[in-house]
Each structure stands twice: as C-alpha cells, then as structure tokens.
Amino acid sequence: MSGLPGPLGGSPFERFRHIVVEGPIGVGKTSLARKLGERFAAKPVFEEPEGNPFLERFYRDGRRYALPTQLFFLFQRVNQLRDLSQRDLFSQAVVGDFLLDKDPLFARLTLDDDELMLYQQIFDNLRPQAPVPDLVIYLQAQPDTLIDRVRRRGIPMESNISEPYLRGLVETYSRFFYHYDAAPLMIVNTERLNPIERDEDFAMLLRQIVELRGRRSFFNLAD
Asked: Which domains does the chain have, with CATH numbers?
C-alpha cells in the first residue's frame, strides 16, 4: 500500500494550478517535478540544459563562457514560459523545475560587473513575460550531500563542476529564498527525505502540500 492521495480530494493541483520545484544542482528538483507531473497529469515545463551549447564549456572554463551560457538559458527559459503567460492556466495543471526569478543568482556568481550590468538590463526587459506560480517548492540539502549526488549520478557535463561553485550556489539559493515572497513557498529539507524512490516519503510530501496554509512553510523529516 503506497498511501498516496487518490485522484479526488488529494491532488495538490486542485489548489495550486502552477507548481514550480526549485533548488540547487543535484537536489532532485527535476525528478520530483517529473513525478508530480506524471502522477497528476500536469503539463511539464522543465529546464533543458542539454540544449545549451555553452554549458559543458562553462563547467570547464567558467570565466570565458559564463555570459553566453547565462544569456542562452535566460532566452530559453523566457521562451518556455511565454506560452504559459498567454494561456489559461486553469485549463491544465502545470509543473516546472525552474523559477525565472532565480536566474540572476547564477549571473551574480559567474559574471563580472560589466557583464552583470548587461545581463540585468536584458533580464529586466524580459521578466514581465513570466507568470508567477501558485506554489514554489524549494528543495534543500547540505553542500556535501549535493556534491555526492552530483558525482553519483555521473552526468558527463557535470563532471567539471567545482565544489566551491556548488557551495556558493547553495548559499546563494538560501539567501534568495529567505527573502522570497512572490508566491506561497514550501521549504523542504531533503537530507533524509527521498520522495522519488520512497512512496511513503512522496505521500508525506503530498499531504504537506495539500494541507499547506499560509504563505510559507517548512517540511523536515525528523530523525
């Protein structure tokens, strides 16, 4: 028995028609977003890192390829979200694995001052095209945990990601979501929670979402 909520009365998309799962590299945001989409027949809007021709070169030589990598992702994400802003979100539930508002986090980590100024001007002009989600699920994990997960999943282009870069990314995400208030936010600690491989953990997470009250909550699986 999985304990998962049934299709009637238990879907998080009954309250939140547009859910975004966010978090740093290796935390499992895409896997969770995909599982939510498959479980509840939600339209997926996922990042496409394999489509960025600069990304692998960025991981090898971040200083040289930071700006083209960042701008490619920005335009790619805006194009993906543009369709959502032009349609009735209530016609179908939507689940994504990226929040456009977090895009500048990577820019501030990798771009120099002049590049960042150029990037910010472009971002500010494109940002109004992105719809605000009904719920953001922010997945957390310690840097050492993420480093281990990235190494174990063995994606070739990620083999050159440096540990200082991952640690800086975790800290930057934490600061960003500490102040985030554009949409209701659920912060989920994934150190002991594995909603992808353990149905009971997925069921607990679903219950937390369905029962969510207020603008901000924190879910941490106790020892």
From this structure: 12-220 (3.40.50.300)
Reported as a single tens digit per residue, the pLDDT across 37-86 is: 999 999 999 999 989 999 989 988 888 999 999 999 999 999 888 877 66
CA nearest to 3, candidates 203, 222, 215: 203
Q: What is the pTM of this model?
A: 0.89
* Known catalytic residue at 97: yes
Contact 137, 21 (CB under 8 A): yes
How far is the C-alpha of 45 from the C-alpha of 42, rounded, in Å? 9
Per the residue annotation, which of 61, 83, 88, 97 is the catalytic one?
Answer: 97
Q: Provide φ and ψ at 219, rounded to 5°.
A: -120, 120
- Distance, in Å, from the CA atom of 122 to the CA atom of 120, rounded to the nearest integer, reads 5
Distance CA 163, CA 185 (A): 27
